[in-house]
Specification:
This protein is mainly beta. It has three helices and eight strands, in the order ββαααββββββ. The strands form three sheets. A four-stranded antiparallel sheet has the order 1-2-3-6, with no helix packed on it.
């Protein structure tokens, strides 16, 4: 979901540190026996739910190295670089979840909860998390 808050765009994504998830779905891997598939195709990095925040308006007078994210509810940063671009570093919300869903009545609005499948180092979801992240 993506929403606007206090002149910032906030968006949450599921990210991986490598492409091992995609390698599992190569045709040669999918044609393996089920036991071999699960044994040989392990995730090398867990999925990470991350929040990025981009300021909608930047000031040309902002100092290089200054964090332009002014929201108090996140640790995500958008630091001004020498050439005027922004280097965004996300807030890590949680690890080990995939296929996030939220109440679509909150589409484009700030939300507090989302639902996801928990992934435990296997190529398929194994549990639904009992505790879900709560946003301020």
């Amino acid at each position: 979901n993506t929403y606007e808050e206090a002149d910032h765009i906030v968006f949450d994504v599921i990210a991986y540190k490598d492409n091992s998830l995609y390698e599992m779905f190569y045709l040669e891997n999918l044609l393996q026996e089920s036991e071999n598939f699960a044994e040989k195709n392990q995730l090398k990095s867990p999925p990470i739910c991350q929040r990025f925040v981009l300021p909608l308006h930047t000031n040309e007078a902002s100092a290089v190295g200054e964090n332009l994210v002014k929201l108090q509810t996140t640790t995500a940063t958008a630091v001004k670089e020498k050439e005027g671009s922004l280097y965004c570093k996300p807030e890590e919300i949680c690890q080990g979840v995939e296929l996030p869903r939220y109440n679509y009545e909150y589409n484009g609005k700030k939300y507090r909860y989302f639902y996801a499948a928990r992934v435990e180092w296997k190529p398929f979801p194994t549990k639904v998390p009992e505790l879900l992240p709560r946003f301020p």
